[in-house]
Amino acid sequence: MTPLEFFLAGTMSAATVFLLAALGELVAEKSGMLNLGVEGMMAISAAVGFVVTYQSGSHIIGFIVAGAAGIGVSMVFALVSITFLANQVATGLAVGILGLGLSALIGKKHESLTVTAPDPIQIPVLSDIPLIGPVLFQQNIVVYLAIVIAILISFCLNKTRLGLAIRACGENPKAAEALSYSVLKIRYGAVAFGGLMAGFAGAYASTIYTPLWADGMIAGRGWIAVALVVFGTWKTGRIFLGAYLFGMVSLGELVVQSFGVALPSQLLSAMPFIVTIVVLAIISSDRARLRLHAPYALGETYDGSEPK
Amino acid sequence: MNIVQQPLLTLSKLTKIYGSLVANDSIDLKVFPGSIHAVLGENGAGKSTLMKLAYGVIQPDDGQILWKDKKIDYWNTAVARDLGIGMVFQHFSLFETLSVVENIALTIKGPQKDLIDRIRMIGADYQLEIDPTAMVNSLSVGQRQRVEIIRCLMQDLKLLILDEPTSVLPPQHVYALFDALRKLQKDGVAILYISHKLEEIRELCDVATILRDGRVTGKVDPNETSAQELATLMIGRSIPKIERRESDHKSKNAILNITNLNVKNPDPFGADLKDLSLAVFGGEIVGIAGVSGNGQQELGRIISGEDIKGDLKSSTIEMFGQSVIRKGVIERRDLGFSFVPEERLGRGAVPSMTLSQNALLTAFKKGMLKNGFIQEDVVAKFTDKCITEFSVKSSGNGATANSLSGGNLQKFLVGRELLLEPKLLFLAQPTWGVDVGSANEIRQKLISLRDNGVGILIISEELEELFEITDRMYVLRSGRISTSIKTSEVCPDEIGEYMIGEEREGASNATAV
Question: Model-level pTM?
Answer without folding.
Answer: 0.77
